[in-house]
Design a protein that fits this description.
about 120 residues; mainly beta; four-stranded antiparallel sheet; DUF4183 domain-containing protein
């Protein structure tokens, strides 16, 4: 009998649940939060979905596994125009001198908590 290479026959199936965790924060612009075209909003001026003032910092997006959406006066903004402060302490919006007072500002933070399960059969 000739030499034969025996190979294992394996089959694997992986399922992944993305488990998005979404936080929404709301604010109406006050003139006091604008300085030289930059709007800086401390976390405690935001409201949550239930209308409660925040008592803890804004949730931050997990690097490589989360993202922000910022709407100013109902318009989605480019990510290069805003920064969430260290550990969610504030939101800074640049080039914002034309944003009217009382304009609604909505920050959405979406993080994923993926869970994967692999089943191997032979």
């Amino acid at each position: 009998m000739a030499t034969t290479l025996f190979k294992l026959v394996m089959d694997a199936t992986t399922t992944t649940d993305t488990n998005p965790e979404v936080e929404r924060y709301f604010y109406k612009l006050e003139e006091a939060d604008r300085d030289s075209g930059i709007i800086t909003i401390p976390y405690d001026k935001f409201f949550d979905d239930e209308g409660n003032s925040l008592t803890t910092n804004l949730t931050t997006a997990t690097p490589n596994n989360g993202y922000y959406l910022l709407f100013v006066n109902g318009v989605l903004q480019q990510t290069s125009l805003f920064t969430v402060g260290s550990q969610g302490s504030s939101l800074e919006i640049r080039n914002a001198s034309s944003v009217p007072v009382s304009a609604p500002i909505t920050l959405i933070v979406n993080n994923f908590a993926p869970v994967s399960n692999t089943v191997i059969t032979s």
